[in-house]
Amino acid sequence: MKVEITTEAIDPTVISSSVKNIEAGAVLTFLGTARKTSRGREVTYLEYDAYPEMAEKKMAFILGELKEKYNITDGAFVHRIGRVELGENIVVIAVSAPHSQEAFDACRYAVKRLKSIVPIWKKEVWADGEEWIGYEGELYE
Amino acid sequence: MKVEITTEAIDPTVISSSVKNIEAGAVLTFLGTARKTSRGREVTYLEYDAYPEMAEKKMAFILGELKEKYNITDGAFVHRIGRVELGENIVVIAVSAPHSQEAFDACRYAVKRLKSIVPIWKKEVWADGEEWIGYEGELYE
Amino acid sequence: MKINVLLFASLKDIAGKGQLEIEVEGKCSVENLSKKLYELYPKVESFDSSVRIAVNQEFIEGDIELKDGDEVAYLPPVSGG
Amino acid sequence: MKINVLLFASLKDIAGKGQLEIEVEGKCSVENLSKKLYELYPKVESFDSSVRIAVNQEFIEGDIELKDGDEVAYLPPVSGG
Fold first, then answer.
1. What is the per-residue pLDDT for B82?
2. How far is CA D71 from CA A53, B72, C14, D5, D34, in A?
3. What is the CATH number of the domain that holds C62?
């Protein structure tokens, strides 16, 4: 149940492989990447701030919830912070479960929880300005 | 929109990377692996048969549906056939989409469609017998 | 005319082969073809209610007329993934 | 007693720093602490309704008493992912 906040580039393959298990028939990997267009504006780059100790606690708590609620076999949750260029990886949530249904439910729930209880903040930087993004339900829904 | 039936080992990383796109904020990768226990029995290995030309047609059709229904940015669908050992990769479905919600909906729908319209068959081989598995709704639900 | 018949999974095991050519005289529908197939491999008929048929790689509903060179596949319930 | 105050994202930008120590006399609740913080950085108060507070890395509901060395974090609405 690996959890990490890091300023380094993140590799989904390593994270995803870490949750593979011979008792799991399904591995689901969610990768969030920095996209060029956000709410109609062209982003130059993103900057993430975090409360790293609390964020890792909450990420571990969420993986615990996935185990409890969805019976996942294993899970891993890694979020990058600092400056992130367009196209780069921001977050990876990987879960393994006996069947695909549980893996889908668990992974989707984790994304929702990330947007609600993990103290990480995104700043969008455009050519002519920047803004810290507050929680907006539609961002990931 | 890559689609492939192959007898070779499949690499989720390559497949997943192929759908990344600067206009997509989410990449979801479903990986199905051969698990040790199936319906209470210990599996020795799996054997997959397919009607390869029709299977690839149907897989391409499903990716088309994902584009139509869920607005995915890109998708890839690869299924291995022949003998598959425990823990090995069987199928990868990767989709990218602007937001996570669409990626989850699309990927889950593709798994459901795989179990319904793609002519591929699994045989479970145990120490003392073997059986071709027919469609059973609960396998992946 | 000649029809190319494909069998998969359990059906292939029963017939001992996955591909055969069935020669038919004059007009022939899928149902006629199935009768000929079941004469050759009676055990295949026991799967009839669960088997779907594809002609030239497309599922068909009901019965259709075949033409020379058609590829007719007998598909047990699929179980990919 | 000394309270370790943490500010993030927009609040950090307003204050020009992410961490400060606030010295308080006698008993002090989170609400008292917030008043002291708003005196130092009046613009932080305008975010009050959307900010959640964590004490020692746990969200709190309502007001609680603080003790020496507590870490109090002011958290704007999160936007990870």
1. 98
2. 12, 44, 72, 6, 13
3. 3.10.20.30
